[in-house]
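ESCALATION

Customer reports they have been waiting on this structure for their group meeting. Please prioritize. Original submission:
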Amino acid sequence: MVTVINKIGYKGFGDFFLRMVLPVLITTFVFSAGVLLLLELPWYIPAILLGIGVVFVIAYPIVVVERQKVNVQENIHLFITYAGTISTIDLDRSTFFKKVAQKKKYGFISDVAEKAVYLAKEWNLGFAQTLRKLAVYSPSKIFADFLDRFAAIMDFGGELQTFLGDEQDAVMSDYESVYKQSLNNIGMLREVFIAITISVAFGMSISLLLPLLQGVSILIAVKWALVGLIAVDLLLVALIMGFIPSDDLCHKLKHRDEGTKLLWRSFFIVLPLSLILTAGVFLYTKISFLLVVAIGVTPFLITGMFASREENAVFKRDKAFPSFIRALGSTIYSRQGGIISSLQALRVHDFGVLNPMVVNLYRRLKLGSDRDRSWYFFAAESGSNLINYFVHIFAESVYLGGHALKIGEIISNNFTRLINLRTLRQQQASALRGALYGSLVGFIATIYITVSITTILAQMFSSAFVATSGNSNVGNLVSSIIPPIPEVNMTMVSIYIGLLIIIHSFVSSFIIKVVDGGHRMAFFFDFTLMLWIGAVLSIVVPLVSEKLFLPAVGIG
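Update from on-call: job pushed to the front of the queue and completed.
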């Protein structure tokens, strides 16, 4: 526990107790006492609040360390690539760590580099001893092992360039292992999601029969089912986002590529169209609530298709980038550092989808535009998050005088490995999509079958009450066996079930995009299809149920 406390920045348990535990417990106690005295709530409400404070104090260090670990795992591949490329400049150790410390986008890794410079210089510990101390407090085993190896090579007086060149394969292999483990977590969470969905559907089936068993209104059962489903879906979203490291396909720069611009234009055109269509269908038709929403959301299929097309375009650019960056590094090396002349020479080669971007980059640099802005626009036009990071690593290392041939090879090799991992992730996302669609169909069908059975049996029992009302003895016997059946308001039941399906479809579609790392707007495609599946089943299942069950119970 002390090690965990040290990892989050506290000197020891005493420091943690004074600065964290004591203030939280005092605040929680005062708040709980205020709730008990002023609001006159039951005693267990303040007790629960006090318990939440205690749990927070215990869980806080663990959560912070896990967040640091995830942060390292999300940036370790970028760090090792950057470290390998700038090491070709033949920097000394202090300058190397200062360079890494300036890269705040590397998060926890840049903080460690900043601490390494401070401890090594201000405390005269030396980099080898400093790195060993920092490795002990690293939340990530990959990064801790790297720091230990770095410290060892410094003790033996090894060259920085040679070590970081050799470390490319070692760190990337460790990163691949962790990444593939996260992909296995996707499979595990897929099974959990399906199992919970089936359990919720089964629980709803039982709860929807309560009106027949206890005389409870079916609306109460549906309302509680809605609350339960929302809680389960939120829990699963939290698990997915906690277990699966982010790996966004598209960048989030202010300047967008043409595909993204077209996507957003389509969204702002479709949005008012969807609102008008929904209002018109709602006011001038008498169809079910779920079908109204499905029709209203249908125009967003266009936005979803544009987003999917943008994902495919970005993925193609990612696949073409390694050969381009390797060729550019080789040409710059052979031309002794002439980036503009190298780009001019490369224009005759076919880089496929990257050709317009290469031409635009050459023209900007040729016209004397700011070189950093020129590379920024190259990354922005690609639409790719990976290209955005790696092309800036390449440009910075080359402009600092690094070995262009080695820089191109390092970036190309690491980029290719990342594309292969992303391909595996896409396969897992496809399997997840199929499983979610299947579980959604089963979930919706189960709900509507149960509602149909409940409605039919309610009609049958009501008929029994009417038939026996003339005979007091028989009527008393029936009422003692069968509780009074509340009237079923099918309009409200349909609305609540529609909300259930909408929320579950939204969460399922969102989870798919979190897992595959694609453009978030592409979720409209799956969301619309899922709503239409729900709308069709809401019509078909009750009709089929009536055909099957009504003759069996002798009604109709």
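Sent to customer with the following note: Residues 2-176 form one domain.
Escalation resolved.
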